[in-house]
Design a protein that fits this description.
single chain; 154 residues; alpha+beta; 4-stranded mixed β-sheet; 4 strands; 8% strand
């Protein structure tokens, strides 16, 4: 049996193919991506914002808004707008925060107009409902304004 085993081993080893792992030329990878880079406290990158839908514009701002909420700089007002509650001492960061708030409120105003028409409501009514949902979905520690006008951290 040992001769059969040796013969089987010889057949197996003799049948093994050599695999070439190198390539004659370097591999090339074609990657296309769009990157908008922002610096906290710096200016915001432009990326054809004029062509964005309200939903796309708000989605692009959502991260920046959340950072400002986490830093306790902005809060959700009872009228559905975003309010700058605590102005950063660093002037560049303060300018950045103001810009984000203005852009977010502009997008919200457009959204209130569009949604109010679709739902047959006034913009003020839709904004009030939006504000209620924003208060409910806010995280603990974020600024929110009650319908009475009183500000508190959730």
């Amino acid at each position: 049996m040992s001769s059969a085993w040796i013969l089987g081993l010889a057949v197996c080893l003799g049948g093994c193919a050599t695999v070439q792992l190198d390539t004659p030329e370097p591999l090339q990878v074609d990657i296309r991506m769009k990157v908008d880079v922002e610096q906290k406290g710096g200016t915001m990158a432009k990326s054809g914002e004029g062509n964005l839908s309200v939903a796309e514009e708000r989605r692009m701002l959502s991260h920046q808004v959340q950072i400002l909420k986490n830093d306790h700089r902005v809060g959700e007002a009872a009228d559905g707008t975003l309010i700058l509650k605590e102005l950063p001492q660093d002037q560049a960061y303060a300018d950045y925060a103001k810009t984000v708030v203005v852009k977010e409120n502009g997008a919200r105003a457009k959204m209130f107009e569009e949604k109010a028409k679709l739902e047959g409501k006034s913009e003020a009514d839709y904004a009030k409902e939006f504000a209620q949902r924003a208060r409910e979905s806010s995280y603990p520690g974020e600024w929110i304004q009650e319908e009475s006008g009183k500000w508190r951290k959730k």
